[in-house]
Amino acid sequence: LEKGRFRQALLKSVLAHRRKAAIQEKQDLLDKYQRVLDTRILGRLDARSLKETQDVRYLDQSVQQLVHELEQGNRTVAELLANHTDILDRIEGKLENNARTTANQQLLDSLFFPEIDSREDQIQDAFDGTCRWILNPPTDDSPKPWSNFRKWLETENGVYWISGKPGAGKSTLMKYIVHEDLTSELLANWERGTDLLVVTFFFWHTGSTLQKSLEGLLRSLLYQIAHQWPGLVGFLDGHNGKGSGEAVVSRTLRLPNWTEQRLLVLLKRFLEQKPDPITICAFIDGLDEFIGDEDTLLDIIRVFSKAPRCKICVSSRPEQAFREEFRLCPKLRVQDLNQQDLERMIDQRLIPRLATYRSTSQDSDRLRRMVESLIEKSSGVFLWLDLVIKDLIRGFRNEDTLDELRSRIDRTPETIYGLYARSLKSSGPEYLETALRYLNVILTGDEVGNVGTTLLSLALVEPEPWEFITRYELAYFTSSRFRSICEHVETRLVSRCGSLLEIEENG
């Protein structure tokens, strides 16, 4: 028994000695690191030269004191900083700020996607002088009653709904609102003394998956919030953003694999728990172009409308789900209010071309009646008017008479879809198959890529190149024959698709 106890005591003694030795080894290593740190820091500081330089008088008072103590012989970092907690606080603050900046950049990188702004960039800017009415209060002579949008920007919360027919100019109007300086000035009156965040999203039915999905909407909104207010990173772990710096400094930020649910949870948490100085106004265009669960989309809009110090403006076609959801909200219909905008469009694009027809007062009257007919027949649809103006300009170039121009208007279908059908048919039945092939490539191309459709991609689906693709004979695509097909595809596209498509040069 005594031998057993002796062995146990001996074993405990050996283990204790080993632990003590290990602890001492670690302490020696820490002391070594401390000496190296002191040497490297103080090796860069020459107290005498620092004190002798005339620039020392411009240093912070606490730093001057630090230089003085260095000259007196305080040679370790611990000794130097013992009486300078303010410097330590500044170092810690700098570390926290750097950690927040790094964490926020990680969050931004995880939310970003290449086509995040491409839909908005592709929307046509408003013609000079148009859309201004939206930021002025309604007048007694307004064509139709509408809710005061200016007042909503300045004083109200909740939802404002902008509706309109296809092609009426809803997206152009929304883009104008977002970028007009007066919008920012009016919103500044809404919640004075707060930090205003403005976020936007433009759905696009023929765009990439992220341009028409809930995930794309949420990633874009959260990206813009984080870009304008870095404190969003503090909401990732369930906190309300307060004190998030310490949490970020103390650990490496681990971002989740973003799913619709996780994105939605983060957005709701921010909107419901954001700090008091934060207000947010959102603009979401094209709700009818969203692909997904409509109820979930409407739920996001409800969260914006009910959260404190939040508001949201949305636009869409007047589909039944939106009519029901927004029936009690302030609203307007674009086609009821844009007649002056249509007139300005005609004045800028068509009237200068037709000046030669004003040889007599009678011709001027006929021209005025023709313009009035255009406005009436357009029913407030910008896209319809745009296509008809292009057709009339072609007639002008062909030296049509006023009667022939008026005949063009009379024969024009009254709907956008009718115009599309006529444009395809006007190219002739022999071109219809090719035109449909081009259109199909363009529509499906937007589904699988984010760079749009190029003339090269259209050349590849011509019968001859397509045959070589199926046979995987790649040498053909460096031949002069293929280059010739590429050079002629633009002419073929215009002749077969009429005015349905426009070609843009890129870079």
What does this structure look like?
Helix 5 packs antiparallel against helix 10, helix 7 packs across helix 9 and helix 21 packs across helix 24. The chain has a five-stranded parallel beta sheet with strand order 2-3-4-1-5, sandwiched between helices. The protein is α/β, with parallel strands linked by helices and about 500 residues long. The protein contains 24 helices and five strands. It is globular, with a radius of gyration of 34 Å. About 25% of the residues are buried. It starts with a helix and ends in a 10-residue tail after the last helix.
Overview features:
five-stranded parallel sheet, globular
In short:
The chain is α/β, with parallel strands linked by helices.
Provide mean pLDDT, rounded: 80
Distance between the termini: 92 Å
The structure class reads alpha/beta
Order of helices and strands: HHHHHHHEHHEHHHEHEHEHHHHHHHHHH
Which percent band covers the strand fraction?
A: 5-15%
Count, helices = 24
Poorly predicted segments? 36-45, 242-250
Secondary structure elements and pairings:
Elements lengths: L1 H42 L3 H6 L8 H12 L4 H5 L3 H27 L6 H5 L26 H7 L2 E6 L6 H10 L1 H8 L6 E8 L11 H15 L15 H7 L9 H14 L4 E8 L8 H13 L3 E7 L3 H6 L5 E3 H4 L1 H11 L11 H18 L3 H16 L4 H10 L4 H11 L2 H20 L6 H6 L2 H8 L9 H18 L10
Parallel strand pairs: 1-4, 1-5, 2-3, 3-4
